[in-house]
Design brief:
The chain is built from 8 helices and no strands. It is mostly helical.
Amino acid sequence: MRTGFGIARVLFAALGIAAIVTQFASSVATIANKGGSVGAFVVNFFSFFTIDSNVLAAVVLLIGAFFAFARTGDDPEWFTVLRAVATTYMATTGIVYNLLLRNIALPQGQTVQWSNEVLHVVIPVYLVLDWFFAPGRTPLRNNALWWIVGFPIVWAVYTLIRGPFAGDPVTGVMPWYPYPFLNPATSRNGYLSVSFYVILIAVVILVVGFGVVWISRRWPGRRDARASGTQVSTE
């Protein structure tokens, strides 16, 4: 089973990387042809939570593949925490995309449809399945939630502070935000609407993160921890 998941992790990591690179290359070509700023685009591109989460997911899958091929016991706790972080972010990406962004064109240039689906649907689904069924996962304490919520808080602060000073790489129009619901200039109730969506996404991340941590202690993967004598704490 471990070898099978190792192979699957390599394949899905490669698919995710291919989707990121393809979207990046397509957007760079589009912006260059329009005489836009490629440098500004690069910063904007990596300001998307989706892109950051998928980069993390690819790294986690490749590390996980290594452990699947090289180890026979439980994974190190730090890696289980990292898996939990990536799983939470990707599940949140899938939920937010399908609820709020499914029919909205992304602003970084011409969207590559298959890449869009891979990054917002395929990889999130696989990360969740991997969390449920891949062996080696160790039980996590509830304080792992601090690691899960850390980056989204930093990302939200960064996005809201940078937004008014960032511009579209082609038109130069300011402000620029990675997602339309974060732009107070175009939101119906300005910062009130933005605050609502920020709080909503924060709640989703917390709920999903808590579920991910809870599953680590309740799903059959816990048997690995029992066999290795790992102590489980709910503190």
